[in-house]
Design a protein that fits this description.
This protein is mainly alpha-helical. The chain is 38% helix and 0% strand.
C-alpha cells in the first residue's frame, strides 16, 4: 500500500514539474518564447523546404547566388488580399530594364529566375527579336552584303543566346595558315566579312594564304622592299594598292626625266621585285 502511495506521489510531482517548465516562462519556453526577436530566415533554412530552388541557384544561379532574403524580402504571405507582385520580388527591383522597354516580361525569356541564363528560351524563339537589341550588327550586315547576310542569326549563334561560333564550323578550308577564330576576325569582321581591314603589324605570312607567289617574289628580292611587311604598303584595307609617290614622292629623278616615262614600273618593274628593265 505504501508503495502505491509513493508511486502516486512521484507521478504527481513529475507532472507538476513538466507543467512548471511549460508555463513558468523559462527562456525559450511558454509565453517568453514570444518575447524573443524574430530573426530573418537564413538561406540554409529556406533550402530545407525549397531544395530544388537552392540547387538551381547553387549550380546555375550566376549572379543570383546571393542570400534568398536579398530578393524575397516578403515571403510566405499568401493571403488572398495580397497581390502577387507583393508576394514575389520583381526583376525590375534590381535590373531596371536591361533590354529596353520592349522586353519587360523577364520570365517570358528567362523562364527560371533561379537559373536565369541557362533557362533562357531557345535561339529559334529569340531570332525574330535579334534586331531589337543588336541593331548595330543588323545594320552592318545589311550595309556590307555577303553570304553571311543570307542566313539567320541563329544559324551562326546557335545552341544558346550569346554563343559565338568558331569560324571553322562553316569555313573548313581556310586560306591562311591560321585556323582559329581569333586570327580570322583579325581581318574579317563577322558581320562584314568582305570588308577586310588590318593593321601594319599584320604578318606577311597571313597574306601568303592567297598571295603566295607575290610573297615569294618579294622575299626573294635583294631590294629594300623585301624587308617590308605587306601591310606596310597595302595599308588598312585589303585591295589597297598605293602609288609609289606615297612614299617616294617625286623620287630621286628630276622632273624632265620622269616625263619620258608613264610610271616607275617602266624601269623598275613590279614593286615586289624592283628588277630594272
Amino acid at each position: 500500500m505504501k508503495n502505491l502511495v509513493f508511486a502516486g506521489l512521484a507521478g504527481w510531482v513529475l507532472l507538476m514539474t513538466m507543467a512548471s517548465y511549460a508555463f513558468a516562462g523559462d527562456e525559450g519556453q511558454g509565453a517568453d518564447l514570444y518575447l524573443q526577436d524574430v530573426q530573418p530566415m537564413t538561406t540554409m533554412e529556406c533550402a530545407r523546404c525549397h531544395y530544388s530552388a537552392f540547387v538551381d541557384i547553387r549550380d546555375q544561379g550566376g549572379l543570383h547566388q546571393q542570400p534568398c532574403t536579398d530578393c524575397h524580402q516578403v515571403y510566405h504571405n499568401f493571403k488572398p488580399s495580397v497581390p502577387m507582385k507583393d508576394k514575389l520580388p520583381q526583376c525590375a527591383d534590381c535590373h531596371d530594364a536591361p533590354h529596353g522597354d520592349l522586353f519587360v516580361g523577364c520570365l517570358g525569356c528567362h523562364t527560371n529566375a533561379h537559373a536565369p541564363v541557362t533557362s533562357l528560351i531557345g535561339v529559334d524563339k529569340l531570332a525574330k527579336d535579334c534586331e531589337a537589341c543588336h541593331g548595330e550588327q543588323q545594320s552592318e550586315i545589311k550595309e556590307f552584303p555577303s553570304a553571311h547576310a543570307e542566313i539567320l542569326c541563329s544559324d551562326c549563334h546557335h545552341s544558346r543566346h550569346g554563343n559565338r561560333p568558331s569560324c571553322n564550323e562553316c569555313h573548313e578550308d581556310v586560306h591562311t595558315p591560321y585556323i582559329d577564330t581569333e586570327k580570322c576576325v583579325a581581318c574579317h569582321a563577322p558581320h562584314s566579312p568582305l570588308e577586310v581591314t588590318y593593321g601594319e603589324e599584320t604578318p606577311s605570312k597571313l597574306c601568303s594564304g592567297c598571295h603566295e607567289e607575290v610573297l615569294e617574289a618579294l622575299t626573294g628580292s635583294s631590294k629594300k622592299h623585301s624587308v617590308l611587311q605587306c601591310a606596310f604598303c597595302h595599308v588598312e584595307k585589303h585591295g589597297n594598292i598605293p602609288a609609289c609617290q606615297d612614299c617616294h614622292e617625286s623620287g630621286p629623278h628630276n622632273e624632265s626625266m620622269i616625263k619620258k616615262f608613264t610610271g616607275c614600273q617602266d624601269c623598275h618593274g613590279a614593286a615586289h621585285v624592283l628588277k630594272l628593265q
